[in-house]
Amino acid sequence: MQITPHVTTTNLMTSNRLSKLLVILVFSFAGLAQAQHDIHFSITEQLEVANDQMIIQLAAQAQAGNTQAVSRQINQAMQQAFQQLTADERNFVQTGQYSVNPRHNRDGDIIHWQGQQQLILTLPIDADISELLSRLQPYLSYQSMQAGLSHPKRQEAENTLLETALKSYQARAKLIAASLAANQYRIRETHINTQQQAGIFPQARMALAASMDSAPVIEAGNQTLSISVNGTLVIE
User: Fold this and answer.
1) What is residue 183's predicted lDDT score, i.e. its pLDDT?
2) Alpha helices in 38-109 (DSSP H)
3) 20 sits in which H/E element
4) Torsion angle (degrees, nearest 10) of CA 171, 172, 173, 176
5) In this predicted structure, what is the pLDDT of residue 123?
6) Considering only CA atoms, which of 181, 183, 165, 152 is closest in space to residue 230?
7) What is the pLDDT of residue 224?
8) DSSP character for 109?
9) Which one has a higher pLDDT value, 10 or 192?
10) Cβ-count burial of 69 within 10 angstroms (0-12 exposed, 13-18 middle, 19+ buried)?
11) Which helix (H) or strand (E) element contains residue 205?
12) Are 229 and 191 contacting, i.e. CB atoms less than 8 angstroms apart?
């Protein structure tokens, strides 16, 4: 016996309603997706800051026929240099790299040994650096000098710059949304990058003055801090 499936009018109406509702939901979500627009944008702010410290590298150097003699000469020079420092100045001093290496002739034989140890001074900019160097140079060789920012001053400058950058970032987002006649907008993500540009370093001027056996001319100069903020703006 053949059985004919029985479909009621109620079931058909329910099925049709569900289909229509599904179509409406699909088009609604599609409309929402089309209404949103992602815009990637960024801003950059810079701040020029006066350097407030100098980092100076000096070195005790020696040459002798054996390593013991080299080490003895280096230690003696370092001790004599430390004796030239006041108790307060020693708070700004640290020792750096220490090395002793052989020097060879063309046949590969060791002809003598050379060594050095660094002395690093991190001084406030208002210190009498010229006078200090004049006391140390009889015992140590000048290597380099670099101006920089102390940690407290750098932190203060970066906080100020960050506040300015975030205000500019928010203003840029508002401007973009208004220019595109957006009903509403939101910032979905934000990335912050801090950079430091090279400052003005007086190595060349210092080296020239030292070679002329005169007081070094020292200028701390400035350096530029930079913050870039980028993110995604969602407008509707």
Assistant:
1) 87
2) 67-83
3) helix 9-35
4) 120
5) 93
6) 165
7) 93
8) -
9) 192
10) middle
11) helix 203-211
12) yes
| Residues 6+ positions from 48 with CB-CB distance below 8 Å | 222, 223, 224, 225
Cα separations in angstroms, 74 against 80, 89, 141, 206: 10, 21, 12, 24
Task: Please name the amino acid found at residue 152.
Answer: P
pLDDT per position as a tens digit, 142-199: 999 999 999 999 999 999 999 999 999 999 999 999 999 998 999 989 999 988 665 5
Q: Tell me, what amino acid is at 127? A: A
Across the strands, what pairs with 127? Answer: none
Q: What is the pLDDT of residues 126-146, one digit of tens each?
A: 888 889 999 999 999 999 999
Give the confidence band of 15 by pLDDT, cuts at 50, 70, 90. low
Work out the number of other CB atoms within 10 angstroms of the CB of residue 211: 9
Count of alpha carbons within 13 Å of 114, Cβ hemisphere only? 5
Beta bridge partners of 59: 118, 141
Q: Given the structure tokens 């058909």, which residue do they identify?
A: 12
Q: Which domains does the chain have, with CATH numbers?
A: 37-49+153-197+222-235 (3.30.110), 53-148 (3.30.70.2970)
Tokens describing residue 23? 């179509």
213: left (phi over 0), alpha (psi -120 to 50) or beta: left
pTM of the model: 0.66
Tokens of 51: 């350097």
Name which of 124, 168, 170, 155 is nearest 225 in CA terms.
155
